[in-house]
Design a protein that fits this description.
about 525 residues; alpha+beta; 11-stranded mixed beta sheet; 5-stranded antiparallel beta sheet; about 40% helix
């Protein structure tokens, strides 16, 4: 083991300047993201927008590309394909040399970047599980770069061929996979080969490349037989391509946000209609007061699905519809405060679907049969911050909340709020932008007001596993300007927990024409 560490120290010493550059870049990137994301002041909206746009792909590939070239540089300190390499005369086995290169690459190119990011993750309230999942996602592209880089460098004798044959290898593998997919999959574009299954096959292909690359690099390090190593690589890639194209199981869809198996209490959740369906002539749509009864406490339930009307078993109209539950109902439960009359939801949750005027008139004369397949999306609500208006920065177990601007004008108040929190969804091992709702609560009189929806502006960005939410909020006092003196800013977070499927049948389906102008815009 001492000899292995001597090889690693020798590599680090000879590559001190490139490796120092790598360390500086890792730290500088983290500091830059912290400044842009508002860790030390107001967030820079212009740069945040640019980093989420065309530069997103560049950011995703920047670190793995640098790591890939550093791996080649590391291996070429002791090239494996040279017959007269200096280390052949030393008591260093090919196996020891391979593990020294692998360990050195993992320390510098995988562990170091993750370790540099840990302080930032801790600063926004990351727990042990958050750290584990974020570290896994951060390390995964670097592990791929290290594995492929080791194999490519072991099979070539210089940087030009290193780059050329790596590109050629990826192109060959991609073309081979597409060709086999077209030849051996009967319906390559049918339902089931796209979406979750297509993503599953791609992830398995990438994982297979990593699994193949490391044994090939090890084989070349131990035997130094280039032809045999290339044959091993080619046969392995061919078998991997065939296996991936024939893979039948979707492993991604159950992990997607809003998906997952039903829980024990979900059997009591059902769709219910609480009143008459109303047709809005101006918008040519029908609204059905449909709710999800039996949903857990402190949750919002959003309905999305497909509705159809039929006469005598013949379907006449099929359309998609949706319903969004106002969060104020959950906020009242979470805060114990009563919402101002202006914030009380007038129309309770309702399912809205486009409907032809001709069919609406026919339903008045001859009621149809109605059938809906609806996904009930359950969002769990929780209070994340209670920040007095006199304070500018707040910390909770879920992140940091900072007010960058606050202005009071008469009975109105405007403020700019930045929220920094971990963006890793632990339940589904995924990234998700939380739905944040903002309100002012006055503990003295037990009242609550929500930000004016027409003036609300918000954005969401993702930097290094940290989500940055920025919002401009506007509030109107329910009494007078003095009401704001004791008010506390409340931030509630709603995260997608799961989605369950339900059906609803109504026969006969009766329709009421609603010509009230106040309801046409809802």
């Amino acid at each position: 083991m001492n000899l292995t560490w001597q090889i690693i120290r020798k590599d680090f010493r000879r590559l001190k300047w490139p490796l120092l550059f790598w360390a500086v870049v890792s730290v500088a990137k983290l500091v830059f993201y912290a400044f842009v994301g508002g860790a030390f002041g107001a967030a820079d909206q212009r740069l945040l927008g640019a980093l989420q746009g065309p530069l997103l792909a560049v950011r995703a590939l920047f670190d793995p590309l640098i790591a890939f070239f550093l791996v080649g540089w590391l291996v070429y300190q002791d090239p494996l394909v040279e017959r007269d390499a200096f280390w052949i005369t030393r008591p260093i086995s090919g196996q020891r040399l391979f593990f020294a290169k692998l360990l050195g690459a993992l320390l510098l190119l995988v562990i170091l970047p993750v370790a540099v990011s840990v302080p930032e993750w801790l600063s926004v309230g990351a727990g042990p599980r958050d750290l584990a999942v974020a570290a896994m996602y951060s390390a995964l592209p670097m592990v791929i770069a290290v594995a492929v880089g080791l194999a490519a460098a072991a099979l070539t004798d210089g940087f030009p061929r290193y780059v050329l044959w790596t590109l050629a290898g990826f192109a060959f593998a991609g073309v081979m996979r597409l060709a086999v997919d077209q030849l051996f999959v009967v319906k390559p574009h049918a339902a089931g080969t796209e979406g979750g299954l297509g993503g599953t096959r791609w992830l398995l292909f990438v994982a297979g490349v990593v699994v193949i690359a490391l044994p090939v690099a090890w084989h070349q390090s131990v035997t130094r037989r280039l032809a045999r190593s290339l044959a091993l690589l080619g046969v392995s890639l061919a078998l991997l391509t065939l296996a991936v194209c024939a893979w039948p199981f979707d492993l991604i869809t159950p992990l997607a946000p809003g998906q997952g198996p039903e829980k024990s209490g979900d059997s009591g959740i059902r769709l219910a209609v609480t009143g008459d369906a109303r047709y809005l002539p101006r918008s040519r749509s029908v609204v059905i007061p449909m709710t999800a009864e039996g949903a857990p406490e402190n949750t919002m339930t959003n309905l999305r699905g497909r509705a159809e009307w039929s006469w005598d078993g013949h379907v006449a109209w099929t359309r998609n519809g949706n319903s969004f539950t106002p969060p104020v109902v959950v906020l009242e439960k979470l805060t114990g405060a009563s919402a101002a009359p202006a914030d009380q939801p007038g129309f309770r949750p309702r399912f809205r679907v486009d409907l032809s005027p001709v069919l609406a008139e026919r339903m008045q004369r001859d009621p149809a049969s109605f059938h809906a397949d609806v996904q009930i999306e359950i969002l769990e609500g929780a209070l994340r911050a209670r920040l007095p208006l006199g304070e500018r920065v707040g910390h909770t177990g879920a992140g940091t909340f900072s007010v960058s601007n606050l202005e009071r004008k008469g009975n109105s108040l405007a403020l700019a709020l930045a929220v920094r929190s971990m963006a890793v969804d632990l339940a589904r091992v995924n990234f998700t932008a939380p739905f944040l709702t903002f309100a002012l609560v006055n503990p003295r009189d037990g009242r609550m007001v929500l930000s004016r929806p027409k003036d609300l502006w918000r954005s969401y960005s993702l930097l290094d596993m940290v989500g940055i939410s920025n919002a401009h909020l506007f509030f109107d006092s329910p009494t007078d300007a003095s009401w704001f003196d004791d008010a506390v800013l409340v931030v509630a977070e709603f995260r997608r927990d799961r989605t369950i499927q339900r059906t609803l049948d109504i026969a006969p389906f009766r329709l009421v024409i609603d010509s009230d102008p106040a309801n046409q815009k809802r």
